[in-house]
Amino acid sequence: MSNRLRGMLRRVLKALLFALAVVYFLIDLLFLSILRPLRRRLIALRLMQRLRLWVGTLHRYAALALFVVPWLLLEPVKPTAFYLFAHHHHTAASVLIVAGEIVKLTLVERLFDMTRPQLMTFGWFAWGYGHWRAALDYLRALPVWRGLAARYRAIRLRVMQLLRPAR
After folding, report:
1. Are residues 113 and 152 in the same domain?
2. Which of 75, 64, 76 minimizes the C-alpha distance to 121?
3. How many domains does the chain have?
4. Which has the closest alpha carbon to 111: 63, 77, 147?
5. Where in the sequence is the domain holding 137, given as residue range(s)?
6. Which of 49, 51, 89, 154 is the Cys-Cys partner for 84 at CB 3.0 to 4.6 Å?
7. Same structural domain for residues 33 and 111?
8. What is the tens place of the pLDDT at every residue in 78-107?
9. Is the pLDDT score of 32 beyond 70?
10. d(CA 38, CA 10)
């Protein structure tokens, strides 16, 4: 295979992987925006406040394990749902991705929020988190993202108006 063809294949593969990564993270961001009210209620629970105090006392390696283990257990939910969808198990795939993402994002996001100070003491983690935040900021600055966000807010406002009890 010639170098030119190899380089072209590499660029195509990179573009496909980038597109897959964008879709993958967009699903997380969509679910995060939907789960905000649930997260606010969880934060207000006394149990969560006690848990936050306890997590704050953990050594950084214990905090890393507390964050990484549930994430590693729950992260395969999305690829598994994609696999089921590809094999025409649409209902099972839909249920798995919705339920799995709700559990994963609620639990892992809370754990990350609680363990962030300890996790940021790892140079490699702080570096990766900084790059991840920069990538999210870049995506959110894109005109297509801002347009979709505006449409989402308008639809959400309309749904909230419809769900509000009549006076």
Report:
1. no
2. 64
3. 2
4. 63
5. 122-167
6. 89
7. yes
8. 888 888 988 888 898 888 888 887 787 778
9. no
10. 42
